[in-house]
Write a structure and sequence with these properties.
By secondary structure, the protein is α/β, with parallel strands linked by helices. It has 9 helices and 16 strands. The protein binds zinc ion (ZN). Zinc ion binds next to helix 7.
């Protein structure tokens, strides 16, 4: 009897270990939603195609300039959409659990285990709310008032499952996506079909990440996986047709996950050799946070380059300029509220974000001695200016009519 009980306990622990160590205990819903939108929403498709070409161009420049990024900080707000339980019970997870989950996320993005690369992107729970008031970055709302939420959780838009309407849940609590990365912690997604899903970077009111409360933990592989999607990473097995065939592999920048150091594979292939190809470092895919394999433990340099390129352009770029964590990515300013320059200090590129009324304005970059170094015209609300050939030091960036608006820019 005792032996049987022990055996049952061992089996239960093995199953539990398997679930804990697996990147995705149950499927991630991102692909499903993305494919649906690509097919049905032409504006969405256009945004993704545009972003893809921007990210590819920046990635190429990074490679040419050997860009080393600074540490970028992303303000995060966590909305806990619970079922009316007391704090710390059931889906109404505690502040400490959330803080530890964000710490675990940062550990994975900073390569805490030394097995991958440091993405140099960190996440901070917001310390200032959209009105400038102090906050711990956590909002709690009873979601049981929304129809079908208690029974089946949230339904990602376009999915046929019978949970609550996604936008009704997100409308309970959301902060501007230009200043915060929104994470909604929910009781369930599609009655347990998914553990998480994220929006690719397209902005809008509902951009962000949805994760079930049981996966919002310090050891979660789901959280870094979904944040990876949120910063434009695809699955390492992208293009396998749902574990059907090896992804096309003729141009690693344009096939599969569009990343060159993650060999293409099928979702279910996680063994010691990759049946799809012998090229590349197989461990980079089978142990990747963006796979569905067990024992995930790394992001790669190629994924980092793509994430950092994504952070340089809209809609994620504005997060670097947010006051959400009580700091701002700019160094000195003449209190201009109509344009901003970031990151600052910069290495090779600066991103200039301007109010629409400044489109067509000229800009000038002066060196310390007042000599004009660069000049040009602002043609987009988000303009990237290359500083690659300039030597390190302090420059003055001026913009607008009579060049009255100016920032100091530090080139490292
Ligand atoms: Zn996924």
């Amino acid at each position: 009897m005792k032996t049987t009980l022990n055996l049952i306990l061992i089996i239960i622990s093995l199953v539990f270990f398997q679930m804990q160590s697996k990147g995705q205990g149950v499927e991630c819903g991102t692909d499903y939603i993305h494919k649906n939108q690509m097919q049905t929403d032409s504006a969405y498709r256009k945004q993704i195609v545009t972003l893809e070409s921007q990210v590819e161009a920046i990635t190429q420049k990074q490679a040419n300039n050997k860009l080393r990024s600074s540490l970028y900080t992303i303000p995060v707000v966590v909305h806990v959409i619970h079922l009316g339980e007391p704090i710390g019970t059931g889906s109404n997870i505690s502040d400490i659990q959330i803080q530890e989950a964000i710490a675990g996320l940062n550990d994975r993005f900073s390569n805490g285990n030394g097995l991958g690369v440091d993405v140099e992107l960190e996440f901070c729970l917001a310390s200032k709310d959209p009105n400038g008031n102090s906050t711990n970055g956590i909002n709690r709302v009873d979601g049981s008032i929304v129809a079908n939420y208690s029974a089946n959780g949230i339904t990602p838009t376009g999915n046929p499952c019978s949970g609550a309407i996604e936008t009704d849940i997100k409308d309970l609590s959301r902060w501007p996506v230009s200043d915060y990365y929104n994470i909604w912690v929910v009781s369930e997604i599609c009655n347990g079909a998914f553990v998480g899903y994220a929006s690719y970077p397209v902005g809008g009111l509902y951009d962000g990440l949805v994760i079930v409360s049981t996966s919002m933990t310090s050891t979660s592989g789901t959280l870094p996986h979904e944040v990876g999607h949120g910063f434009f990473l695809y699955h390492t097995f992208s293009g396998d047709g749902g574990n059907v065939s090896c992804p096309v592999d003729t141009n690693c920048l344009m096939n599969g996950d569009n990343i060159c150091d993650t060999p293409p594979h099928k979702q279910g292939d996680c063994g010691t050799t990759n049946p799809c190809t012998l090229a590349g470092v197989w461990d980079n895919s089978r142990y990747n946070y963006m796979s569905y394999c067990p024992l995930v433990n790394r992001f790669t340099q190629g994924q980092k380059d793509r994430i950092i390129a994504t952070v340089m352009v809209a809609p994620r770029a504005s997060l670097l300029n947010s006051l959400g964590c009580g700091t701002v990515g700019i160094n000195e300013s003449s209190s201009s509220d109509i344009f901003s320059v970031f990151p600052n200090p910069a290495h090779s590129l600066i991103n200039v974000k301007v109010d629409i009324k400044l489109l067509g304005s000229s800009y000038v970059v002066y060196d310390n001695a007042g000599k004009i170094i660069l000049k040009g015209i602002i043609t987009s609300e988000d303009t990237i200016i290359e500083l690659g050939t300039l030597s390190g030091g302090i420059y003055l960036f001026s913009l607008g009519e009579n060049l009255k608006q100016s920032f100091k820019v530090i080139k490292e």
